[in-house]
Each structure stands twice: as C-alpha cells, then as structure tokens.
Amino acid sequence: MRSPSYALPPARALRAVVVLALAAGATTAVPAAHAETSTPAAAAAPAVVAAKPYMGWSSWSMQSSKYPGLNPDGDYSYLTEANVLKQTDALAGKLKKYGYEYVNIDAGWWSDNAWKPHYDQYARQQADPVRFPSGMKAVADRIHAKGLKAGIYLPAGLEKGAYGDGTVPVWNADGCTTADIVYSDLRTTNGWDSSYKLDFSRPCAQKYIDSQAQLIADWGYDFLKLDGVGPGSGKSGAQYNNVADVAAWNKAIAATGRPVHLELSWSLDIGHAADWKKYSNGWRVDTDVECYCNTLVSWENSVNDRWDDTPAWTRHAGPGGWNDLDALDVGNGEMDGLTKAERQSYATLWAIAKSPLYTGDDLTRLDSYGLSLLTNREVIAVDQGAAPPARPVTASDPQQVWAAKNPNGTYTVALFNLADASAAVTADWSTLGFTGKAAVRDLWSHEDLGTYKNNITQTLPAHGSRLFTVTPPSGRLDWNGYEAEAPANTLSGNATVADCATCSGGKKVGNLYLGGKLTGDWGTVSSVSVPVTLKAGPNTITFDSGTSYAPDIDRIDVPRLP
Fold first, then answer.
1. What is the pTM (predicted TM-score) of this model?
2. Among the four 84, 193, 368, 480, which has the fewest Cβ within 10 Å?
3. Positions of CATH 2.60.40.1180 in the chain
4. How confident is the model at residue 43 (pLDDT cuts 50, 70, 90)?
5. CATH number of 42-384
6. Burial class (CB in 10 A: 0-12, 13-18, 19+), 153
7. What CATH code would you report for 1-39+389-562?
C-alpha cells in the first residue's frame, strides 16, 4: 500500500466536498471547483469547418446490425443508393430544422455485397454499380438538392486491390505509379491491414492523396471519414502510424479549394492529440458504438464505455476539432436495443461532451420518444453552444456528476446513475464553486424546478440521468489548499515527491500504485470532488490505491465555512 496522509488544521465539524487535484489525465491546471472558465483562443475566430460539432446521419449502424430486415441481401447490404436517398429525405423532413445536415455514406460504397472492390484507372475507389447505379456525384447532388451536406468514407493507405502490379498510374502525376507511392516491402497499415502503407518520403505519395481529394471534391462531398487511422484503431508502432497520411489529407483538401470536414476513426491515440487537432476536424475517441448484434447498439457493448473513456479527451475539444463519441442511436426504440432511461443518458452524455450528433437510426421510423430526444432544442443548444465540454466533477463511481460552466455564468450539470439498480445521485453546489440557493431547470422536460439549497439529489433508475441548467447565487466559495508535498504530510510505501511544472507549488506526490503503467500525460492536472465528513478539530485524510492504480496527487482543497 502506498498512501499519503494529509494533516488538516483544527476546524469546526462540517460536511465538506474535498477537491482533489490529480497530476494525470487532465483537463485543467486548476481544480474546476474554483477555476474561472476561459475561452480558447481559437474561439475568437471560429473555423469555417467544424466551428461546432457537426450533426447528421450515418449509414454504418444499420449496415452493421443483424436486426431483422435491415440487411436482407447479406451482411452490410443495407448500404445502397436507394436507402441513402430515403434517409436523406427523412433527414430533410424531420431533423434538418434542428441543425442536422450531414448525410454520411460509410464503408462499402465501392464494393459489392461480397466486398469485391471497384477502382478507376488511377487506383481510386469507384462506386459499385449495383449499390450506387447513379454514381457518387449524382448521389451528392441529390443530397445537396435537399439543402444538406454529403459525406463519404475511405480507409487509410493504398488499398491492396488498387495496387495492381505496381504499374497503375496516379492521376495528374506524370511518371508516378502505385509502386512509387508505397514502401518497397509492401508493408501494410490501418486497423485491418487492408492497405499498403504510403511512403511520404516519395513525392508520388502526396500526389496520390491529392488525386483522391480532388475526386471527392469534384463529386461534391463535404465530409470525409478516414478510417483505420493509427496510432489507434487497435494498432500501434511505426507501421501503423498514419499521422503523415492525415497531414497529407489536410494538405490535399486545402488544395482542392473545397471546404471538406476531415473526421478520423477510430480509438485514436491520445498521445497524438496535437496531431489530430492540427490536421483534422474530429477524431473518434473510442471503439465502435455498434454492438454487431441483433440491435444497433447495446448498453454494455459499447455505449457505457464512453463514461470511462471520454474525460481524458475533454480538454482537446474546441472550435475546429471535436471529440467524436460515435453514432447516437436513440431514435428507434426496440431496434436501438436500449431502455428509455439508457437512451436519454446516451443522448445526455453526447450533448454535454459536445460530441458530433449524428444518428445511425432509421429516420423513416423514429418513435415519438426517440424523436423527442433528437429534437430537444435545449439539449441541442448544450452541444452546439459556446461552453466547453463538461467533465466529471465527482469520482468515477456508478453515480456521477458532470458539469461545465457556461459563458453567462450558469452551469450545465448532468447526473448519471450507471449502476444496474436505481440509486440517488447528488450534485453538491460546492463542487461547482459556490454554495447557497441555486435555480434549477430540467432541460429534457423544459421545466423550471425551483431553487435548491447547497445541492440537488435525484433518484435515478438503472442507467438513468438528468440534465440541468443551474443558475448560482452571486459570490463564490473560498478554499483552503493543502499541498501533497507539504512537510506535515506522511508518505508511506514508495510514495515520493516529484517535480511537476503544471502542478500547484511545482510539486506532486507519485508512485501511488502497484506496478503497471499509465497511458497519458503524467504532467497534466485535473480534479475530482469527493464528499467527506470532517470532525471538529484536527482531521487526517488518507489516500490509498489498494491493489489497483492511482494518479499522482497535486493537492486537496477544502471549502471554508461561511
């Protein structure tokens, strides 16, 4: 056991919320409970592309499901021109006025139902004539005619089937062939090893990406999902590092002169967050949300993963580039495979995390509850507004509170019960940096609930949630800070003091775990709020990792009594 103990000076007895500053996996260098929200510099000049998280529809959820009737001609056969246009009409008629605008065609558009691919004479993907008999330009034109935007999909690298014998010419690149754009040993890349890795030390490789970008721009597409990108997509190492590919796509898209949203997939490596932010407009932070079963998704596989995997990414989202939690499949009831409580929690997390809101549901048969979730203007405003993404302000227990401060001084506060049985969840105002009476509005029900003193407690069903706007009173809490490295504290086991440039006081206490490693940045600071009861007089708080991992500790903050 490695456990530092904090000696707190004498105090009157109180129920306190201790804010613990953690020196790993971070969102901010100051505990959020008493940090002023600042607007990222990028917000002063919003990007033309992805100024806000995008909204729309994607074909993949229905393609990948075994729900009866969705794929009657074999797995993934749902993807056809007729079905895309049917969903386009439904999006235009039901969701466009709420901000949904992208119709995104996913994997398989250049392959037949047996996944035999088609390429043009320049090694570029070409529409399968059965799936898309009118061709990809005509489909984009039909989407645009509805006042919507068109999205398309490609995998990273040069697909093996496009290589030919290495003599296939590259469009608009005299002397370049497919042999001139990949490594001579034909090493593979992407999440499925379905492509040869492009060698960007060879000028012809950029020319090939330029030719692909120009083709989809000429067809009129406004969005590209680049899939299987690494590090990520289940792969790591030099062979699967596609940062150069993403940079090449960024350059090629700019050269076309057409604004094209570049989205990266899937489970991107957070260690390369700076690269994804520099070269793209969004990045999938997790695995596919689809369950590949007889529904579109399921709670356990893998909707509930997002509560664990999203927080580390929160600080990286902002105008121009957003954390993508994947498709929001809450509109079809039985076909979604979720309870009503789960559907609301799913939509709540996506909104407060400021994820793109794109559904994979059948828009022609949305049920009334699903339509109400997808079209709630107050919840959509949380996703599309100027506030930063929310983050957890309590520990990662089954009962969680997430919050973000809004530019007008209010707070967006979400309560989640991730347990398999009903439970009470409490949002304590002190975790937000204030105390006293605060006005609460329920965003899902569009109802003002009145004022609540110091906290709000709600009993939630299994996997349930509530979403509030909280308007605080004037004034803020004062805090007493206790540094982890303070001489009065007792360190045991291998716990040690270490330098930390981003930490309060420039120090932290680490080695609070039993073996293993932490993926992420040890020097970035975040915070979590933990309710404790302090007795009158001296108090000692001990942090113990037990048999598992623990982050380094910067300091704890305790609110002062009024």
1. 0.89
2. 368
3. 1-39+389-562
4. very low
5. 3.20.20.70
6. buried
7. 2.60.40.1180
